[in-house]
Amino acid sequence: MLKIAFHPIYKHPLPEGHRFPMEKYELLPRQLLYEGTCKDDNFFKPEFPDPEHILRVHTQEYFNRLRNLELSSKEMRKAGFPLSRELVDREQIIVDGTIQACGLALENGIAMNIAGGTHHAYSNSAEAFCLLNDQAVAARYLQHKKLAKKILIVDLDVHQGNGTAEIFQKDASVFTFSMHGKGNYPFKKEISDLDIALANKTQDEEYLKILKSTLPKLIDQQKPDFIFYLSGVDILESDKLGKLGCTTNGCKERDRFVLQTCHDLQIPVQCSMGGGYSEDIKVIIEAHANTYRLAQEIYF
């Protein structure tokens, strides 16, 4: 059975006019239930993770200041969120959702998190809507528990996974692959193990050609025993914060290729949703829902 992390705190409200579309975290599960892609028992409710898991990635000093709401106004401007207890709780619970999803992916081949993909969070700082790096923490969790040795992070959000690159920059046991917009945020990029920077307006055909020629070779070279997939839908032409030119169908075919590849090679995969900032919320929900529809089609 497909298992999906969801907690009501995911939809924590932000001040009116804030550009981050928090409503998608409420609407996406409702859509999946309404159309019959999922049932109530597909969803599980994460809680607070053991802080030790977080501290394998994030520094003690940063995590303590975050939990004590002691980040400076400058740091919070960089994060993009107004600091609050609910927000810090939310970020920790998202991390637990991804950790728990890893165990379920080992059992079922795949598991998802309605939220997550917080790849801009560095080991010692927050950035761009990301306070804690959920997939980085979960990768360290798997290795600590000896559930995986070699891990591949496939980051197909339109923005480079700069925080993830920084966290694993000296660690050969976690391979970071980021395929993103060249002319997009972050403008000062970190160095992933493999970065593919795409030109503005890159469309479906070129995008899929590059991905299909890269991912199988990468898996063959690295031989991971677990894959994290960050399936951001901000590659869409309609996205306000992206600069690529992909269609909803192209985004769906991207997901189909990644999930089918993981399935065929029998490599467990955990999926976190990442970004999506199209003006029309229906476009965001449809693109994200496709990832879940494909997971059901391919795996179950």
TrEMBL record:
Alphabetical keyword list: Hydrolase
InterPro entries, A to Z: HDAC_classIV, HDACs, His_deacetylse_dom, His_deacetylse_dom_sf, Ureohydrolase_dom_sf
Entry-linked Gene3D superfamilies: Histone deacetylase domain
Superkingdom of origin organism: Bacteria
Domain Histone deacetylase: 18-280
Family: Belongs to the histone deacetylase family.
Protein name, UniProt field: Histone deacetylase
Organism, as annotated: Christiangramia antarctica
